Amino acid sequence: MRTEVAVVGGGAIGSLVAYALQRAGLMVTLLEPDKPGAAWRASAGMLAPHAEGLSGELLAWAEESLERYPALVRALEETSGVRVPLVLEGTWVVARSDAEAEALAPLEPLPAPLDRVRGARGGRQYPGGQVDPQALVHAARTALERLGGRILPAEARGYDAAVDGVRVYLEREVLRAEQLVLAAGAWSARFGLPVRPLRGEALLLAGRAPNTPAFVGEGYLLPRALGVYVGATSREGWGRSANLWGLRWLADYAHETFPWLETAPLREVYAGHRPAAERPWVGPVEPRVWAAVGHGRNGVLLAPATARILTQRILGPKPHPIP
Ligand SMILES: Cc1cc2nc3c(=O)[nH]c(=O)nc-3n(C[C@H](O)[C@H](O)[C@H](O)COP(=O)(O)OP(=O)(O)OC[C@H]3O[C@@H](n4cnc5c(N)ncnc54)[C@H](O)[C@@H]3O)c2cc1C
């Protein structure tokens, strides 16, 4: 089997990179075994560079991504036929202590139901918003295929890069590619990349949500089509599903912070592994091999800029082809 570019991993990062490369005219094969515990399946999809405290180059990537999101989502929707809910109406940070109030000053009055957050003194609104990460990945994969790309439900087990190309080892066969992009999320250490799993659990409750995402203390809440998403835990290591420690943390947090959710029915429990690293690695690993890994808590936010950067690096300094 042959391809121009093999992309290992079709999560938030790999699916957008694969779509962007295919759209730029390369023949892409995406390897995606749909591993349980992928981050994109659990992700909140907040686009919140300021509330997440990004600075320097990462803040620049985040701001670029926020600018790119509307046109990117339009193009994905047109090509795939999949609707991708995107709302860019800001994010709130709520102050409850003196220190938080001082850090966020001048405080603005909170809209309902955030005015009912226990101990709330007011808050501050920042640019940003949210996208539905599951719809985004589904749309990018569908668009990739509609543009002529290929998705194999296969796990990459290793690779060899040589002057004449890269061999990617699958369970029963070898995929030969001219270039390889490693985007296997929290599993990327398998390919020698410095990434570790940081588990996150979250809840979907059938209750009233604010209109935009809101950060309160150690967690946050945001609107979803079927209710309100409350997240998230953060623990080192692997774990196949949510466990009692995570559920207790989330229940205590929701109970202590959002009194109106006290009796809201539980709709879903999410658990996924963020690909944690010192900082994202978006660039060359060795000749013909590229990495797009280590986006930690902000992979959905940083995905459009990541796809643009990698596409440009792989194609050379031409005008970038993605919206
Ligand atoms: C609870 C939670 C909340 C989050 N909230 C936000 C948020 O609000 N905003 C934000 O920006 N980010 C958020 N994140 C983080 C975000 O989801 C991740 O940064 C992002 O999904 C990383 O994308 P990725 O493609 O690197 O990894 P993933 O999305 O995990 O995808 C990796 C893919 O690689 C595949 N794979 C693994 N091994 C192989 C292999 N050997 N061969 C082929 N394929 C392989 C997997 O099947 C998987 O689909 C959150 C994460 C969690 C867990």
**CATH class placement of the largest domain:** Alpha Beta
Number of helices: 7
Structurally, how many domains make up the residues?
Answer: 2
Question: What is the helix content?
Answer: 25-40%
Cα-atom radius of gyration: 20 Å
Proportion of strand residues: 25-35%
| End-to-end Cα distance | 31 Å
CATH H-level homologous superfamily name of the largest domain: FAD/NAD(P)-binding domain
Category from helices, strands and their pairing? alpha+beta
Specify the overall morphology: elongated
Small molecules held by this entry: flavin-adenine dinucleotide
Number of strands: 19
Q: Major β-sheet, in short?
A: 8 strands, mixed
CATH architecture of the largest domain: 3-Layer(bba) Sandwich
From N to C, what is the helix and strand string? Answer: EHEHEHEEHEEHEEEEEEEEEHEEEH
Ranges where pLDDT stays below 50 over 5 or more residues in a row are none
Give a written overview of the molecule.
By secondary structure, the protein is of the alpha+beta class. The protein has two domains: 1-88 and 130-195 and 277-323, FAD/NAD(P)-binding domain (3-Layer(bba) Sandwich); 91-126 and 196-276, 2-Layer Sandwich (D-Amino Acid Oxidase, Chain A, domain 2), CATH 3.30.9. It has seven helices and 19 strands. The chain has helices at residues 12-23, 39-42, 56-80, 98-104, 133-146, 244-257, 299-315, and strands spanning 2-8, 28-31, 46-47, 86-87, 91-95, 122-126, 129-131, 150-152, 158-162, 165-169, 174-182, 196-205, 214-216, 219-224, 227-231, 235-236, 266-276, 281-286, 289-293. Strands 1, 2, 8, 9, 10, 11, 18 and 19 form an eight-stranded mixed beta sheet that branches. Strands 5, 6, 12, 13, 14, 15, 16 and 17 form an eight-stranded mixed beta sheet that branches. Strands 3-7-4 form a three-stranded antiparallel beta sheet. A hairpin with a 2-residue loop joins β14 and β15 (227-231). α1 runs parallel beside α7 (299-315), α3 crosses α5 (133-146) and α3 (56-80) packs across α7. The two termini are 31 Å apart. The mean pLDDT is 96. Bound molecules: flavin-adenine dinucleotide. Flavin-adenine dinucleotide binds next to α1, α2, β12, β17 and α7. One of its GO terms (cellular component) is cytoplasm. It comes from Marinithermus hydrothermalis (strain DSM 14884 / JCM 11576 / T1).
